[in-house]
Specification:
Layout (H helix, E strand, L loop, with lengths): L1 E7 L4 H9 L8 E7 L2 E7 L12 E2 L5 E9 L2 H10 L9 H12 L1 H7 L2 E9 L4 E6 L8 E5 L2 E5 L20 H7 L13 E2 L4 E6 L2 E6 L13 H19 L6 E4 L4 H13 L5 E6 L8 H11 L2 E6 L6 H10 L8 H12 L4 E3 L4 H5 L3 H12 L4 H11 L4 H11 L5 H10 L3 H7 L8 H5 L7 H7 L1 H16 L3 E3 L5 H8 L3 H6 L4 H6 L6 H5 L9 H4 L3 H11 L4 H5 L2 H12 L5 H18 L1
Parallel strand pairs: 13-14, 13-16, 14-15, 16-17
Antiparallel strand pairs: 1-3, 1-9, 2-3, 4-5, 5-6, 6-7, 7-11, 8-9, 8-10, 11-12
Helix pairs in contact: 2-3, 3-4, 6-20, 7-8, 9-28, 10-19, 13-14, 18-19, 25-27
Length: 601
């Protein structure tokens, strides 16, 4: 795991050193650079494969091709065997050198079809005077780009770009409604003007004639595949076991982040079977009994005999919150980023690599709103006059009945808008209050790009990509820790998303996972309700954090005063103090204020 920088026809050795310097946390073990005819590649390395010999950049046999890698290629030993068989010779055991030889021998398209892993890489082909840029299939590893004069710059983290004299932070004001509505920005653009993302599953080719972007992988479309339950369980079990086996490939110890929930418990159960020694597992808690996961994790750790580490974390001041925003680059309003950074720091004191459970919900239908959306689909087949009067009084009931009735009563007919609104935490009316200049008809574009798909497909390309995976990468690398996500092995994703939609719908609620691992996990795992991994921010905003936020947004030079309606923001805070729940949008506003001060002030 590393951080990379690539400059095509721009920059110099001094500036690439500065760009690498600000992402030293991604690779504190080593640094490497290469330059050819005014183009540069550089890397900060976290040494995991061939710790002593796997320096970067790596080269092919005649050194006409150099390559830097952020990530891991899990089948590098298998690919090395193929390359040796066609005449390649190696000087290291690193996966980066395998990519360099493979790119030279097979070409970019065939190489990317062969590799299994999470990665972004950059390569310079001096013989043909060109550069290659590539990002993994699911977008697990981040990669950004911008134009610099007549050239391009590519980086693992946006903050590197601001070391270039030509690039200064600027707000992409067109994306502000989307940032507020969803707490992240989707698609090729970011909240920074003129800074973009390299799309997952794509590669770039740059040469003297210009540049091309090519797609080599996409999330599969559903087919008419209708396996029965036993066949599904067998295939999922086999594919997931293979995914965990791949992610144990390492020359340093590998641990796991353990919440005691279903996903992380399944990961640990497979690790305990496949690893050569009991894995290290890590859990943190905030001391709030309603949010503390340590008792659940302790049960799972005992069941599998892991070497378990748990820690009670205390957010004593604003330092940790500021560091979260700095590492994120983008002001993603996900409060779970804070405990993710803290647990990553705990794990990094013991290991360099951990496995995590991200991706399971999107793959196996784990979010309750998926089933709720199915029910909403059925209701919306009929005029609202037939069913809204029935739901209206039910909204007033306490507990789950009232919650479900309220969600259905307010549900939008369009699936993508319904999904976004349920996730948002910001009502369209409040978005209009915060951004009064926004056209009244434009609110739909803020929440959704109009794509019509099942909610799990929407989440895969939006929520998972631009919130969850970004958060896991930036927070783990902020602690110099590599996080691997076995549920997002592309073979498992291809299998699940290639099933017919009616099969997927039938097995929502992670039913397949529960059936596959029913005999492997403690009963407490199945009895536990799904719980978000986040700090008690609703309480915090009614106390010290709320006072700090009020001070930030009422400051003359604040982000809110500069770009939004400060009176509306203060009103939301007051409503929250008086019992309303505006915690999600308040966290987003707080994040944007800290982001504004770190990157613009």
């Amino acid at each position: 795991m590393c951080g990379i920088v690539a400059l095509w026809k721009c920059g110099n050795d001094r500036v690439i050193g500065e760009m690498l310097g600000v992402i030293r946390h991604r690779g504190p073990d080593d640094e490497g650079r290469f330059e050819h005819e005014g183009s540069h590649i550089g890397v900060r390395r976290l040494s995991i494969i061939d710790v002593e010999g796997g320096h970067q950049p790596a080269f092919n046999d005649d050194r006409s091709l150099s390559l830097v890698l952020n990530g891991e290629i899990y089948n590098h030993a298998e690919l090395r065997g193929e390359l040796v068989g066609i005449g390649c010779s190696f000087i290291s055991g690193s996966d980066t050198e395998v990519l360099a030889h493979g790119l030279h021998k097979w070409g970019i398209q065939k190489l990317l079809e062969k590799v299994r892993g999470m990665f972004s890489f950059a390569a310079i082909d001096t013989a043909r005077r060109r550069m290659f840029i590539a990002r993994d299939r699911l977008g697990i590893k981040p990669l950004y780009w911008t134009r610099v004069g007549g050239g391009f710059a590519f980086v693992s983290e946006i903050k590197s770009l601001f070391q270039l004299e030509e690039i200064a932070p600027a707000v992409n004001t067109k994306k502000l409604p989307e940032q507020l509505a969803n707490r992240f920005v989707s698609g090729p653009d970011t909240i920074f003007a003129n800074i973009h993302r390299v799309a997952p599953g794509t590669f770039w080719t740059l040469d003297t004639a210009g540049h091309t972007e090519s797609k080599y992988w996409s999330i599969p479309s559903p087919t008419d595949s209708h396996p029965n339950g036993d066949e599904l369980v067998e295939n999922v079990t086999r594919l997931f076991k293979d995914a965990v086996t791949d992610r144990l490939v390492s020359d340093v110890p590998v641990g796991a982040l353990l919440s005691g929930g279903l996903d992380s418990s399944i990961v640990v159960s497979q690790m305990s079977t496949l690893a050569e020694s009991p894995p290290l597992t890590f859990t943190v808690g905030f001391g709030d009994s309603a949010l503390d996961e340590r008792p659940y994790a302790r049960t799972v750790a005992t069941e599998f005999g892991t070497r378990h580490v748990e820690e009670d974390v205390v957010v004593s001041d604003s330092t940790e919150l500021d560091e979260v925003v700095w590492h994120l680059d983008e002001p993603v309003g996900d409060a779970a980023a804070l405990p993710t950074l803290l647990i990553a720091r705990t794990a990094a004191r013991h290991v360099k690599v951990v496995l995590t459970g991200e991706g399971s919900d999107e793959l196996f239908g784990g979010y309750p709103r998926y089933r709720l959306s199915q029910l909403a689909d059925r209701l919306h087949r009929y005029p609202t006059i037939f069913w809204k009067p029935l739901l209206d009084p039910l909204q007033l009931l306490p507990g789950m009945v009232g919650h479900v009735a309220g969600r259905l009563f307010q549900s939008h007919r369009e699936v993508q808008l319904r999904n976004a609104l349920w996730m948002s935490g910001l009502a369209p009316s409040d978005l209009q209050r915060l951004v009064p200049a926004m056209e009244s008809a434009a609110w739909k574009r803020a929440y959704s790009d109009g794509e019509s798909a099942k909610p799990w497909r929407l989440d895969m390309s939006r929520w998972l990509l631009n919130d969850i995976l970004l958060k896991v990468d930036k927070m783990s690398m902020g602690a110099s820790l590599e996080a691997r996500v076995p549920f997002l092995d592309h073979r498992l994703v291809e299998y699940m998303y290639g099933l017919s939609e009616d099969v997927r719908a039938k097995w929502l609620g992670k039913t397949i996972l529960k059936k596959a691992f029913a005999n492997s996990l403690p009963p407490s795992v199945f009895a536990r309700k799904k719980a978000p991994f986040k700090p008690p921010i609703a309480t915090w905003f009614r106390a010290d954090l709320g006072r700090r936020l009020e001070g930030l947004i009422t400051d003359t030079g604040s982000f809110v005063n500069t770009h939004l309606d400060a009176e509306a923001a203060v009103a939301l805070l007051k409503e929250h103090r008086n019992g309303a729940d505006h915690a999600l949008i308040l966290w987003q506003l707080f994040t944007m204020e800290v982001w504004w001060r770190r990157f613009f002030k």
